[in-house]
Design goal:
The chain has about 375 residues and is an alpha/beta fold. Strand 1, helix 1 and strand 2 form a beta-alpha-beta unit. Helix 1 packs parallel to helix 12, helix 6 packs across helix 7 and helix 11 packs across helix 12. The radius of gyration is 20 Å and the shape is globular. Bound molecules: 3-isopropylmalic acid and magnesium ion. Magnesium ion binds next to helix 9.
Amino acid sequence: MSNPSLLILAGDGIGPEVMAEVKKIIGWYGDKRGVHFDVSEDLVGGCAYDAHGTPLTDETMAKAQAADAVLLGAVGGPKYDKLDFSVKPERGLLRLRKEMDLFSNLRPAQCFDALADFSSLKRDIVAGLDIMIVRELTSGVYFGEPRGIFVEGNERVGINTQRYTESEIARVARSAFELARKRSNKVCSMEKANVMESGILWRDVVQEIHDKEYTDVELSHMYADAGAMQLCRWPKQFDVIVTDNLFGDLLSDMAAMLTGSLGMLPSASLGLPQANGRPKALYEPVHGSAPDIAGQGKANPIACILSFAMALRYSFDMGAEADRLEGAVNDVLASGARTADLMGPDGGTPISTSQMGDAVIAALNATL
Ligand code: IPM
Ligand code: MG
């Protein structure tokens, strides 16, 4: 049987730097664990625009559709700010999500013990935190029509449309309930049913799916603004949070900071299972391309490394190997190794991106 295939799209800014560390880890799994992947690489985002005049070519899109999993670094940068909206780097990522139908975006926020003092919140509020945000990723205001900037009378008007169908809500709700069953069995659904009809429908459909199929899971509902407040106040009250595309974008950045650094957070974007049983899948760090530090070896590769751990778990059914990799990251942090984003107020000497990757490899070796 041929090896499972991985398509690496490192992208822009710090994307290639953090992805270089993931490639070391993929190599380690081949050498030391006999876990082999057929890896290919391609362009997405600004670098694809530079090479081809588009942030994602049809050829790359086809490769992504065919791959068993896609690993993405980051897209975007100031160089591309002035580009026409249709060819901005972000459009490449959004096309991947939409055309691969990656409707369920898993964004875990886990506070590693060694980092509990790095959060902007007090230690007892974040220590031991382990929550999962499930963000709907292929619909809502990101994709709804009509959209655009139009002229009405003598002024311009910008329009985006929040739109959700029942089936779109139902499938992401199911994915949240399924996950909750493997965790602490609690789902909190967030919307703005007090001001948005799409929020009313969201709440109704999540409740219906629960009442028909998941009565064993505890379900609560919260308005998304109150949810943001509760995430800051006492985040450990949550297990799985399910929410729409835009609220999920905001809430997951916020949850990231609870864990100490945006440089720590991985994500998995999953579609429906295919004939081989694997879901269509793309794995990427929650952080962006960080143009301010790109090319300096300062970036924290952990979010990207943990995204690969999620690929092991969710695409390749290698939960034990994912545990091994996450454990290695935990050991490295416990040993005091820190990239620049994890420097406390008292300073210290940060290690570089590649030193962090090497430290994770050393910790992996220690598990053998
Ligand atoms: C994210 C990012 C993206 C989003 C951008 C880069 C299009 O912020 O993945 O959270 O808004 O979804
Ligand atoms: Mg975001």
